[in-house]
Amino acid sequence: MKKTFLLAALLLSVGAFAQNPKGGISAEMLSQLAGSYQGNGTDKALRNALNAASINVLAASADKIAMIDTHFSDEVKTKGRTNQLSSGRCWLFTGLNVLRARMIEKHDLGAFTFSQNYLFFYDQLEKANLFLQGIIDTADKPLEDRTVDWLFSNPIGDGGQFTGVSNLVMKYGVVPSNVMPETYAANNTSQMSGHMATKLREDGLRLRAAKAKDRPAMKLQMLKEVYRILALCLGVPPTEFTWARYNSKGEFVSEKTYTPQSFYQEFIGEDLENNYIMVMNNPAVEYGKVYEIEYDRHVYDGQNWVYLNLPIEKIKEMAIASIKDNTALYFSCDVGKFLDRKRGIADLGNFDYGSLLGVSFGMNKKERIQTHASGSTHAMTLIAVDIKDGKPVKWMVENSWGADSGYKGNIIMTDEWFNEYMFRLVVEKKYIPADVMAQMKQKPILLPAWDPMFAPEE
Questions:
Q1: For the chain, what is the domain count?
Q2: pTM greater than the 0.70 cutoff
Q3: CA–CA gap between residue 429 and residue 288 (Å, rounded)
Q4: Active site residue: 281, 378, 410, 419, which one?
Q5: Which of 77, 263, 310, 386 could join 72 via S-S bond, C-beta 3.0 to 4.6 A?
């Protein structure tokens, strides 16, 4: 404490604060700040501890070290767990895991996975086209225009959301994972994405400088280069393949040649673009309204992200109806908050940051959203709910961080945590009440691409 006072005095003596504008930290204020820190025995012990361990380790609540009850009253049947590794493809893994659970149950399969790499190839190709065409569409605007600036800031990435899944699957179909396996670049996307982004930004400048009549041909040539990069890094997507089908007992059933589209139609056959709605719990904007996010899509001629904002209890009703009918759901949340990654438990009581640091953290969900302290960051597959006395007490999601992560590859969430950090849910229309479907008929309120609540899920 003496050293702090000496430092303040030294700074004052050399005129460090002489020209401070109004509102700056003056020498008197610094003295008050330094004096407010007691530096007593408790503070010294905490400082020593924080010098050697992370805040999360020291804030972990001893009251929560026991494993939570893992029984669930209702759980969707599914097999196997996937791993997105060092990539931001949670949205793609989640969407395909929802379809996988349905396919396994419907056709009595053993553990089965779709190829994430196959659709990721087309995701990156479509996103490159979305950027380049967006640059053409805004070529008459100045470079500092907010939309143009946003496009150059976000030329491509590996994150996304459900409309990416629905548009890509309906356009390109699906293939089993062994038909187009993962590659190093698919599992570790940063370098490929970085080089693609640099090339697209360069191409964007060239398109802006070109004559309007020359831009379509230029875009085609640019996309050929993108295709080459993707083919080298991810492989060439198959247009036809042979697949041998086995049942859950490992017995051979059939062998047949498919296209990606015919495979999807035979084993899933669902209209993903028109059979679902997306709902969200965002208390920072008005409930009962439909919102659309400009440029929040994966395919240029596809669908923007459109969602209905609802109170959390209404969303829970639909989630429970779907789970009870053995139907998994696309779910997203602010996954890192109060998550014990080792045990796979998301519980508001897992960490006591206030007691450790001696300050209070009192913002509610609305305030956290408004101040960028919280938002949807990760997509997972909602597969279970535990209902007691007619009320949900906990939920479980299938994650895409591997079978050894969390609780058997899953994360268990208390209902209180669900209230605070759940954001988005994609629900099949047959589980949606008539009053909610009626609300979806509204003309969406268009929000800009840079709206803070709509960063891609990774």
A1: 2
A2: yes
A3: 17
A4: 378
A5: 386
